[in-house]
Amino acid sequence: MFNVEAIRKDFPILNRKVNGKPLVYFDNAATSQTPQQVIDVIVDYYSNYNANIHRGVHALSQEATDKYEAARLTIQKHFNAKHAYEIIYTSGTTESINLVAHGFAALLNESDEVIVSALEHHSNIVPWQMLCEKTGATLKVIPMNQEGELDMVVYAQLLSNKTKLVFVNHISNALGTINPIESIIKQAHNVGAAVLIDGAQACPHVKPDVQALNVDFYVTSAHKICGPTGVGMLYGKQEWLEKLPPYQGGGEMIDQVSFEKTTYAGLPHKFEAGTPNICGGIAFGAAIDYMNTVGFETIANYENELLKYGTEKLLEIEGLKIYGTAKNKTSVISFNLEGIHPYDVGTLLDKMGIAVRTGHHCAQPIMDYFKIPGTIRASFAFYNTKQEIDALVEGVKKAKMMLS
Ligand SMILES: *Cc1c(COP(=O)(O)O)cnc(C)c1O
After folding, report:
1. How many domains are there within the chain?
2. Residue-level pLDDT at 56
3. What's the CATH number where 272 sits?
4. How many C-beta neighbours within 10 Å does residue 398 have?
5. 136 plus 16 within the same structural domain
6. How far is the CA of 221 from the centre of ligand 1 (A)?
7. How far is the CA of 158 from the centre of ligand 1 (A)?
């Protein structure tokens, strides 16, 4: 049996008050909270073995290097990558996507096409637009429907032997839609295109298997899965990582440097220039360990319960509309109150200690599709409770009364 009260004890922040009220934290799709187990790892690093890695002969440097590389193995195992060197540490999803987009600039020309979906976060749109500007390649868009699901019929029509790359998210941060990535990947491979999956919003809810998916690139951020900000990863198939040129030049990514010619280090170091976020990488591993201790099946079952409960309760409020009603979705509820600006609702909820997101959620094309400026988004994690959802529902009712 899942004991949410025991889980909540792991998260010190959940004890605090906001505006005199107990914190109700429903902004998990923006960033998740950090359990004591991960905080302890961060404190231990800076208290006991803070040192630069890979270069030192001294004990601290070796300890830091060992832990940093052990965390890479934890990440490899979690995502079931074939090799540890297929896991590249980055500063997060955004940097991982930019790294791949930068690399593809050397591989594309103006007769090539790349495909994005209508459901993307700006981080999985803008780097590719920059790539298309640089190379002259054409960007095509898989449309979505009123439920917030991708139109797979149009997707099949967009694919051709001109398609070189497809990039979609595994789960939408704005609507919670779980995209059919297995099918997206298979169809792309049938025309010889590579696929990048933005997993930032999926990793808090599911455990992706990159070999089973046969995906070419999978990217995510640690801070969405109970880890710290400023660290994340790029998984890339070895053959692709070898094909792509380095992203940044600097220390650590070289083999030999002279003013005549520099040769690059092998994987993964070719893509890891400069001193990385060492503590962050180690804490990323600890966050994955923590999530696995709770268990992804347990997490998904419990969050589905919260989603069902929250959806039912919120829909009882007259004039409330939910955006994103896909059959397959995670615990994200994006909604609006008729005739009321989402920002005003968010501000009143904050006064009641309830943290939600309001706005376009870095996904303006989705808001344009629904012809709205934004939504109020409540995103639930496994440490949230039904009582907290009750508080949200009461809060929204109060806000509605005050604003209409
Ligand atoms: C959060 C998020 C991102 C951006 O992640 P960063 O950590 O800000 O780089 C990209 N895509 C999706 C789907 C997200 O949820």
Report:
1. 2
2. 80
3. 3.40.640.10
4. 15
5. no
6. 7
7. 26
**What 3-state DSSP class applies to 329?**
strand
Which amino acid residue places its CA nearest to atom 14 of ligand 1? 200
What average pLDDT is seen over the chain?
97
Q: Which residue has the tokens 């933005």?
A: 198
Question: Could you identify the atom of ligand 1 that is nearest to the CA of residue 121?
Answer: 11
Cβ atoms of 235 and 97 within 8 Å: the answer is no
Give the structural domain span for 113. 39-293
Q: Please give the average per-residue pLDDT across 188-207, as a whole number.
A: 98
- Provide mean pLDDT across the span 296-324: 98
**Together in a domain, 112 and 180:** yes
**Beta strand 332-337 with 375-379: parallel, antiparallel or unpaired?**
antiparallel
Which of 105, 123, 358 lies closest to 232 in space, CA to CA? 123
Please state the φ and ψ torsions of residue 211, each to the nearest 5 degrees. Answer: -75, -40
Q: What is the pLDDT of residues 93-102, one digit of tens each?
A: 999 999 999 9
Two tokens at 220? 């995510």
Helix, strand or coil, per DSSP, at residue 6: helix
Cβ within 8 Å of residue 255, ≥6 positions away: 262, 263, 264, 265, 266
